[in-house]
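Hi Prof. W.,

I finally got the ATP-binding cassette domain-containing protein prediction working! I wasn't sure whether to trim anything, so I left the full sequence exactly as given:
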Amino acid sequence: MDRVTASPDTRAIVVDDVSVDFPPHGISGAHRAVDGVSFSVGWGEVLGVMGESGSGKSTVARILAADHLRRAGQNVAPSIVGGAVHVNGSAVRSMRRRSLPVFDFDVAFLRQNAADTLEAERTVAEIVAAPILERDRRYDRATLDVRVATLLDELFLPLGTMSAYPYELSAGQRQRVAIARALALDPKVLIADEPTAGIDVSVRSAVADLVERRRRIGDFAAVFVTHDIDLLRAVGGRVVALHSGSVVGVGSVDGLLESAEHPYLTALAHAVAPPARHENREARRTSP
Ligand SMILES: Nc1ncnc2c1ncn2[C@@H]1O[C@H](COP(=O)(O)OP(=O)(O)OP(=O)(O)O)[C@@H](O)[C@H]1O
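And this is what came out:
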């Protein structure tokens, strides 16, 4: 199991013995979604988080992005009831809502189903540029256009997409627009919940490649919550496996599948193709 050895300041993310509850609501009682989870992510590292449905992956992602502090309509917010979470040097458990704008400047959150949350009345260019203009209304328009075009290009979206509205795009294209929006401010930390949902196999490698580019430049770290074993293989690095809110394994994705450390991993190993047969090589070969 991954032990937290470094101080919070020297790692991009430190999660130390964290437990998270959903408070009682309606006829449901309080529910422990994350139970004593520890892991850390170094600068220059991309960590995968996998686990079956309901294992606590999205809750971990929400906590890392300080999403529990945001107003979310009727949605019940999770609460950190034990342990400590540091992201980019911020102590998330004791953070106040008023600190979110500063926190969000460096920490981007691609939430689950982000493709469905694109503003319907805005063009793709307006959607991707929005986080930049929210920071600086007077941002130079020509520079902004180049920035948006570059991001879309990185995600294999044609330039013509800039003037399109979300409803004119496929689900996979909308997801790529959501990824571009998450990267618009050049975040130091990216928390991505199911980033490749709906994305075609042929462009999955684009997501791995853009993360790899940022990783190599340094001062960047990411957490990918995903069911997508091929994405985890393409990204490389360590993966944390969750089951019922607890960590049941840490290692490379194929190391974990081979380890059979937990019945969940054994079942998964039987369900997925071995690395030699996965299509990622194909995708990499066809990517520009
Ligand atoms: N708003 C909520 N209110 C109460 N319980 C919740 C809420 N959201 C999630 N849970 C519960 O917390 C646990 C962890 O859920 P979570 O969404 O983090 O799992 P997950 O691994 O991301 O699942 P999936 O892969 O289906 O997205 C589950 O038992 C879930 O039912």
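The beta strands are 13-22, 31-41, 46-51, 79-87, 90-91, 107-110, 189-193, 221-225, 239-243, 246-251. Does that look reasonable to you?

Thanks,
D.
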